[in-house]
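Weekly structure sync - notes
Attendees: PM, LS, DV (DV joined late)
Agenda: review two folding runs queued last week.

Item 1: First target. Sequence and structure tokens pasted below for the record.
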Amino acid sequence: MMYESVESLVACIDEPNRSGCSRMLSEHRELFATVQGSTHNHQAWPGGYLDHVVEVMNIANVLYEQFSALRPLPFSRSDLLLVVFLHDIEKPWKYELGDDGQLHHKAAMQGKAAHQQFRLEMLARYGIALTAEHENGLRYAEGELTDYTNQQRRMGPLAAMAHMCDVASARLWFDHPAAVDDPWTGARRAATSARVG
């Protein structure tokens, strides 16, 4: 399966959310292609944020096709692509460069509650409407964390697959797409794509 661009994957999201996601990407693409994916653990290079998002979306595209061939899934490819596109949307605004030359969390963006509030504001700004399933997907795309209990399943099926995609990018392929000659046909970093055209 060919590695797809973020634009082609966003185009697979159903309306009305496709338009909002496309506008968000268009208005902030330069920022997305500048900031790191994380401070240390994955895609931690300039442009790594966009690389992480594109990688997670491509993994989602592959996993959706493979898993749905085995058993019916209770959500659409569009649902999964929407959630993984938005799952880290606060990251480009979450860090600032410190006097030591390292990225540090902004005080106003500390903690999961602050991240969630920022996400909700961005979604409202771009007219992105989420179902309860989408909200669960965004909330638990990074795992159940402190919400875990053996008394109740918190993470829904959509969140579970989004989490699988995020973990694959952040912990299995944390250094991909490779700077050069990535083995996945068509995969390349955002900074490379900008230079190539």
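Item 2: Second target, run right after the first with the same settings.
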Amino acid sequence: MSELRIRFAGRGGQGVAAAALLLADAAVRAGRNATFSQSYGPESRGGASKADVIVSDEEIAYPIASALDVLVALSASGRDRYLPELRPGGLLIADSSGDDAVPGTVCAILPITATARATVGNGPGANLVALGAFVETTGVVPIEAVEAAISARPPGGSVALALAALHAGSRLATPHIGAAREAMAM
């Protein structure tokens, strides 16, 4: 797919904007075009939060994602709020904390938050686990480009912990690669 429209969604404070920004940075490092935009306002205080990334091999005409190809949801509220914008047959990567499969989508329902806790403790990290799962399932950018983006701008200040969370997400998503990449080809 020459252009991919991705939304990271969750509650304010879950790091959806940080994950999306790292993805956009990685895409540029990999020689692709990318845009990044995020929601502002009360969302940053614990309400539904979103950040959009468009990755393309061509010039990007408009920076806001619509008719999403991929929705990466760290919370049920973020999933429910933005799911109507996911195109039919689009890819949903969601935390398994109570989320069920959604008809009409290709789903990767993963224990994102639990994996983050097991990998980096009680601190942040679910956003990076989700980013690793996204990169592994879609192949939209090489993992090395994300590693470089993290090394240049380590979320939480620790490159080692951030990379551990990224790689845990990558391993978590490995069984979903085939279905996800097939959905991206549509």
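Discussion on item 2: Residues 3-185 form a domain with the Pyruvate-ferredoxin Oxidoreductase; domain 3 fold (CATH 3.40.920.10).
Action: LS to circulate a short write-up before next sync.
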